[in-house]
Specification:
The chain has helices at 8-24, 40-44, 77-83, 118-128, 155-159, 191-195; strands spanning 91-96, 103-104, 116-117, 130-136, 146-154, 164-166, 170-175, 186-190, 205-210, 213-214, 224-226, 239-245, 268-273, 277-279, 284-291, 299-306, 324-325, 327-328, 366-373, 379-388, 410-417. It is α+β, with helices and mostly antiparallel strands. It has two domains: 60-257, Alpha-Beta Complex (Sulfite Oxidase, Chain A, domain 2); 266-417, Immunoglobulin-like (Sandwich). The longest helix has 17 residues, at 8-24. The protein is elongated, with a radius of gyration of 23 Å.
């Protein structure tokens, strides 16, 4: 089975943790997730003796979605300094919308030479910085782009420095675009979401670090927006302007592509490894990852359906199928090589002082899962996987519509031979 195009680091960790799980079940002589056999040699080279693979995706290993010609981080150093794409010269406008009627008493702008500098941001960070885990993912792509520890200052703490007073309903924002209106990429948020976090959620941040390192230009640095519950298009790169407006409607560039621009990230599951052929009596390992959206994750389930068996048309999401629970694997011990000794820093949101998650899986992360199919009779099948969220709702519900984020039930063929 061809693996999905997830980042190499996510794939490598998945391969290791699921291999440990399968060997822990005592499965020798079955097809392993490395496309080799779990034979005696595998059992002698116990994965318990292997160094833990990384959970966080190193910055350079993220899958990249970007736009711009030339890309801002590929400008020469001299050009980057001139346009504010280096920390030394970065500036952020916090200004009222000239086409609306917001009241902002102390606007900050490059034009008035009082825009927020990177030094100003670091002063705020001394008391206001926050760190949290978030998977970066696109609402139009099947697989996650990478799993990161993001650090920044809540956007609201910067907005309050502009002394907003009234007639403000949204924040528009955009990044560097080479002074070319056709390259401008913008997004927006209701001001209520910026100023107050839903219960149990992270704040929207002006992000300057990824995995404890300064944010690279390729990842959107010097500063980008990170909206924790949203797909990647809300987390605009190369941020330079925030505009406070009384306009009630969004102005997101992604809206032009018929996307649901206010959709939260969905919970969904994908296969990573499953043999397409097997023999009768063979234990068949099946593994995958789950992307944990706003609904959380309580279960991953697998169902094997005979290929020639029709399913009732009034149950398009297979809600009445005989699904079986898979095993959601535990949180990692090693969080990433970019972090000293793979340990999380202090004060990561929803982690204990000892660096342990308060619960697992956490929203806006990825989780690995595995199971074994047994006693499958000869025949042709389709294998499906799905998630159940913390509200007991199965994927792709409660929002099955394609434009509000991709979460179709994943499927894969299986031919069992006698």
């Amino acid at each position: 089975m061809k693996r999905p195009t997830i980042s190499p680091e996510i794939y490598d960790q998945h391969k290791q943790v699921t291999r440990r799980y399968l060997i822990g079940l005592g499965l020798s002589g079955v097809a392993s997730i490395t496309a080799e056999s779990l034979n005696a040699k595998d059992r002698e080279d116990s994965p318990a003796n292997e160094p833990d693979s990384e959970y966080l995706t190193p910055s350079e290993e993220f899958e990249t979605v970007e736009r711009g010609d030339p890309l801002p981080y590929k400008l020469s150093l001299e050009q980057r300094l001139r346009v504010g794409m280096e920390r030394k010269t970065w500036r952020l406008d916090i200004i009222p919308d000239p086409d609306s009627d917001p009241k902002v008493e102390s606007p900050m702008s490059r034009e008035k030479n009082n825009a927020l500098s990177f030094k100003d941001l670091m002063e705020l960070a001394k008391k206001k910085s926050v760190k949290f885990l978030k998977v970066m993912t696109c609402n139009n792509m099947q697989t996650p782009l990478g799993m990161g520890l993001w650090e920044g200052v809540p956007l609201r703490d910067v907005i309050w420095k502009s002394n907003p007073k009234s007639n403000i309903r949204r924040a528009f924002y955009y990044g560097h675009h080479n002074n070319d209106p056709k390259q401008k990429f913008q997004s927006s948020l209701p001001i209520g979401r910026v100023l107050e976090d839903p219960p149990g959620d992270h704040p929207v941040i002006l992000c300057y670090k990824l995995n404890g390192q300064w944010l690279s230009g390729e990842r959107g640095g010097p500063v980008r927006m990170i909206v924790p519950e949203a797909y990647g298009f809300k987390s605009v790169k190369w941020l330079k302007s925030v505009i406070l407006t009384n306009e009630p409607a969004a102005n997101d560039t992604y809206g032009d592509g018929n996307n649901d621009i206010d959709s939260w990230m969905k919970t969904m599951s994908l296969f990573i490894h499953k043999p397409e052929t097997a023999r009768t009596g063979q234990a068949i390992p099946v593994t995958g990852i789950a992307q944990v959206g706003v609904g959380g994750l309580s279960k991953v389930q697998v169902w094997i359906k005979p290929k020639n068996k029709d399913w009732p048309k009034d149950d398009p999401y297979f809600t009445k199928a005989p699904w079986k629970n898979a095993e959601i694997l535990p949180a990692p011990d090693n969080w990433g090589a970019e972090l000293p000794e793979g340990k999380l820093p202090k004060n990561v949101r929803f982690f204990s002082e000892k660096g342990k998650p308060q619960h697992w899986p956490m929203r806006y992360t990825i989780a690995h899962w595995a199971t074994v199919l047994r006693n499958i009779k000869p025949g042709e099948y389709t294998v499906y996987c799905r998630t159940i969220d913390d509200n007991g709702i199965p994927q792709p519900l409660p929002r099955p519509f394609r434009k509000s984020g991709r979460n179709a039930i994943d499927e894969s063929p299986l031919n069992v031979q006698s």
